[in-house]
Write a structure and sequence with these properties.
Length: about 290
Amino acid sequence: MKITGTFLDEITHDIPALNWDESEWDRDFAAMRRIGIDKVILIRCGHMKYAAYPSEVLRRAEGALTPPTDLVEMFLRLAEKHRLKFFFGTYYSGRDWLAASYDANRESDLMNAVCDEFHQRYGRHSEAFGGWYLSQEINTSASFNVVECYKQVGAHCRGLADLPILISPGINGVKNRRENLPYGQRKRLAMNLNEFRDEWEWIYSEISGTVDIAAFQDGHVDIWELPEFMAVNKELADKYGIELWTNAETFDRDIPGWMPPIKWEKLYYKLEAAKQAGITNGITFDFSGAPT
């Protein structure tokens, strides 16, 4: 199967910066188009006090810094030039949604205000604007606060522009941020297939009718486990009317270090597992940072 979309990392969180100017991004968008990518997804429009565009909402509410380059405007302009659709990624405050103090209503209100600002300033004027991306990444029902945010923010976004609403969750698997533990211990902590089914049965039932597409990150379980997890995931997504994509990670979680490039053979196995499960649409994190 082909990868037809990629995330754009706006560099406010945990990935090394590319430090590209517009001419370099222009060449990258042209390369995306040449190989068949037709959509780009801003992974988030801001994180904590950093923003991808000069947001008055985030400056007032979060004390966000004003960036020297408006990446949202630039990405939309380049998407129009190269005939790509642009998904706008929502704001992520960095507050711990597993904490008792997390206020899902406050977070939703803030994200809604940012989406209002984006739509008024950019989205309603751009032919490239093609969808919404709800940027919080979850893997279990313990993130019920985020599920509530998905419902509130998704409904608000649909009211602004009735376009596809995308999420990119993960699986609480053996590779889920447990790099310093022995494999056996990581395996005991990992979610098994029945647990995955139970957790996502509830999550899908809650977000059905709000979220249109779930593009699961494919790097959290061992590659040989992927076919089973993807088959169960496809069954559940179909049941609740949610389109299932795969988010094919182009970095290797098996290698020590921070997101080193993946071996092409591993990427092939992951895409084949998605194909076998009946998934027909693949995106990646991420084309711009992928090995060449």
